[in-house]
Amino acid sequence: MTQKISLTRYLVEQQRDHGHIPSQLRLLLEVVARCCKTISHAVNKGDLGDVMGTATSENVQGEVQKKLDIIANDVLIEANEWGGHLAAMASEEMEGIHVVPNRYPQGEYLLLFDPLDGSSNIDINVSIGTIFSVLKKPEDHAGVSEKDFLQKGTAQVAAGYCVYGPQTTLVLTVGDGVAMFTLDREQGSFILTNESLRIPEDTKEFAINMSNMRHWDEPVKRYIDECLAGKTGARKKDFNMRWVASMVAEVHRILSRGGVFLYPWDKREPEKPGKLRLMYEANPMAWLVEQAGGTATNGKQRILDIQPKALHERVSVILGAKNEVDRVTSYHAG
Ligand code: AHG
Ligand code: MN
Ligand code: MN
Fold first, then answer.
1. How far is the centre of ligand 2, averaged over its atoms, from the C-alpha of 318 (Å)?
2. Which terminus of the chain is more solvent-facing, meaning fewer CB atoms within 10 Å of its CB: N or C?
3. Bridge partners of 99?
4. Is 209 in the pocket of ligand 1 (CB under 6 A)?
5. What is the structure's pLDDT at 228?
6. Is the pLDDT reported for residue 152 higher than 60?
7. 106 ligand 1 Cβ < 6 A
8. Mean pLDDT to the nearest integer, 196-213
9. What is the structure's pLDDT at 51?
10. Nearest-atom index, ligand 1, CA of 114
């Protein structure tokens, strides 16, 4: 019988064989994975638990919070406070950073997360997820502030997501490719099911919210028009389209079978650079995609090279199959 490799074993072996994962980082990733299991159980309860529907509060982005947004946020905060591996955390659901309380030792890492991505899908039983990004706190000063979080995506030391779909699947990079782990509910552990995900350079599948078409900029319109023209158009092939409205589910599909995803800037809120958030949505996904051989840009520049100016900064996102992302990016240059 082939031996199953648990997440713990994978991390220990990465640490031993490649020196990628210091022990504090390993602890951090194990705690995040445990949180994802807890969130997965809460998600699965559905109407049988007090987890569905809307809370009475709004988050910093002015979006009405769902009960599960708050539950998932609390799970991640509570589990990551006491281990001594973190200095502070930041979340889509909290305006400011959450510094590890004085009663616990302070570690050297910073954790950012979107505790529940795809919130509009919670109540209709469609895939949702958790996205996370790990940075190192700058070493040149004591204490920790929001400014310490404003690092480029290239500075990430780990990034990943967990998708709560027909299976619960954790996808992770520590800078040495992308590994996928499936939750074995009988054993209660994540088991390695793919150790090197790759995104083909070409695709016939795109993902974009077509209802925003009239608001798009010219380069995005041109790209999608050419896809829609199919075999008889400039691209000389037919395209398929998917839109789940969960970035986690879209990126998971792209890492599993290829494709391209766009959430571009549009004219609805022209002062904002896009809908998705740079630090805890775009950066971790961009790094995963690059680690799997794909590309991620905002139309003009590599997402991982953007210098963040604010914790909740937004960004235009084009990611996935290298040749498609390069094409859309070149249309912006033209
Ligand atoms: P969140 O639930 O964390 O606010 O994120 C939802 C995001 C993202 O997951 C998805 O790609 C996008 O919103 C869907 O937006 P539309 O509803 O505009 O399609
Ligand atoms: Mn999200
Ligand atoms: Mn969210």
1. 15
2. N
3. 88
4. yes
5. 98
6. yes
7. no
8. 98
9. 83
10. 3
For domain 7-194, give the fold: Fructose-1,6-Bisphosphatase; Chain A, domain 1 (3.30.540)
- Confidence class of residue 57 from pLDDT cuts 50, 70 and 90? confident
Domain ranges of the chain: 7-194, 205-333
- How are strands ordered across the β-sheet holding 295-297? 240-241, 205-207, 260-263, 317-320, 295-297
Q: What CATH topology corresponds to 205-333?
A: D-Maltodextrin-Binding Protein; domain 2 (3.40.190)
Mean model confidence pLDDT for the chain:
95
Q: Contact at 8 Å (CB) between 159 and 283?
A: yes
SS3 at position 91: strand
3-state SS assignment for residue 232: helix
What's the Rg (C-alpha) of the chain? Answer: 19
Distance 245 CA to ligand 2 centre (A): 9
**Percent residues over pLDDT 70 in the chain:** 100
What is the phi/psi pair of residue 268, to 5°?
-65, -45
Kindly state the tokens that stand for 295: 């590309």
Judge if the beta carbon of residue 119 lies within 6 A of ligand 1.
Answer: yes
